[in-house]
Design brief:
With 364 residues, the chain is of the alpha/beta class. The strands form two sheets. It has a ten-stranded mixed beta sheet, with helices on both faces. Strands 2-3 form a two-stranded antiparallel sheet. Helix 2 crosses helix 3 and helix 6 crosses helix 7.
Length: 364
């Protein structure tokens, strides 16, 4: 990345917390919120999921309004903590992938963005846009943020996403592919929901803001369609490995300098094997501790909200001094094939003390 981005604010609403502080404290304490959601499988077995503790509970009819509500709450926290002016800030909103869209019942992506602005009673910069690319959408947002900031069109950029698998349409779709964890199917995901966002700017524009971390590089690669979750092929790990390589090339650092990783592994067989293959081929340097944090252990599968959440977890780990190192690789793979890696650095890396071996929450 020709010029690193400084992280100056964040916001999160997840099943284990209605703010960044609550969410990260719960993940560190290995807490979860897996409950009966009110939805059911085809055999009427109740669906166990990770539900945000806000009323009303998710239903098929309130899907749109619930996404607007949780995204608005997370964005309000992000804008307030960063101290940015929305009209001079681009919002790059990650949402679910096109294969999950039902034209008969779904909303337009642009309509979601406008509904969020109406709820917040504000307007973001005209370069704001929606990124319908699932879990890795936030890392696409990093690329777009850099372009916008380098061009001088905006003073700051907010990227992240909002998503929910707690609707009958998605649950039926995932059930048909045997992807949801349930009695008799242990290697599956736990459907969840969430909204997470990060505000970034250039170092020259940070002014008096507190910097929570720096994004050094990002890599994006499209996996061969024959090896994605949506195909019947076997996972190869090739796309994710190439994305991680692209991230370190973008940051101009070596793989051996990475201290730990944050993965989007969610218990699903295909995604887990793909991540494991990629990691064994990419992380080749000797490490006494190879820490890997997996937030899905607490949150379930939160879809397009994951990319920003992974960076937030690292930032809070550094702020609270329990992260096992000062350079982290955040990894995300979308169902449709987009693979992303984002290299994030602690703001005071030069002052980093030796990491403790027992510091990582939810390490695998």
């Amino acid at each position: 990345m020709s010029r690193p981005l400084s992280i100056v604010g964040s916001g999160a609403v997840t099943p284990v917390g209605l703010s960044v502080r609550q969410t990260c404290a719960a993940i560190r304490a290995a807490l979860s919120n897996f409950v009966e959601t009110g939805f059911s499988h085809e055999d009427l077995e109740p669906v166990i999921g990770a539900m945000i503790p806000l009323r009303p509970r998710p239903t098929q009819s309130n899907r749109f309004s619930r996404l607007v509500a949780i995204a608005s709450r997370a964005l309000q926290e992000c804008v307030t903590s960063a101290g940015v002016e929305p009209s001079r800030t681009a919002l790059l909103l990650g949402v679910r992938e096109p294969y999950r869209v039902d034209p008969r019942r779904d909303w337009s992506d642009q309509g979601l963005l406008r509904a969020i602005e109406r709820r917040l009673r504000t307007r973001f910069h005209s370069d704001s846009r929606v990124i319908p690319e699932g879990k890795a959408a936030a890392f696409r947002g990093v690329k777009l943020s850099q372009d916008l900031l380098m061009s001088g069109r905006v003073e700051a950029s907010i990227f992240g996403g909002v998503d929910s698998l707690l609707n009958q349409q998605d649950l039926d779709l995932f059930d048909a592919k045997f992807r949801i964890k349930r009695p008799g199917l242990s290697r599956g995901l736990i459907p969840g929901e969430g909204a997470c966002f990060l505000a970034v700017t250039t170092r020259q524009l940070t002014q008096d803001r507190v910097v929570h971390g720096g994004i050094l590089g990002v890599g994006l690669v499209e996996e061969d369609p024959a090896f994605t979750t949506l195909s019947d092929g076997h996972p190869s790990g090739k796309g994710l490995r190439k994305a991680l390589n692209a991230a370190i090339l973008d940051a101009n650092v070596s793989e051996s300098q990475i201290d730990f990783r944050i993965s989007d592994m969610n218990g699903e067989e295909h995604a887990t094997i793909d991540s494991l293959i990629a990691s064994t081929r990419f992380y080749r340097s000797r490490r006494d501790i190879a820490a890997c944090w997996c937030p899905a252990s607490s949150l379930g599968e939160i879809g397009a909200a994951f990319g920003a959440l992974s960076v937030i977890v690292a930032n809070v780990g550094w702020a609270k001094d329990y992260a096992p190192g000062s350079l982290v690789m955040c990894e995300a793979s979308s169902d449709g094939g987009l693979r992303g890696g984002c290299l994030v650095m602690r703001p005071d890396r030069s002052a980093q003390a030796s990491p403790r071996s027992d510091a990582s929450p939810r390490s695998k």
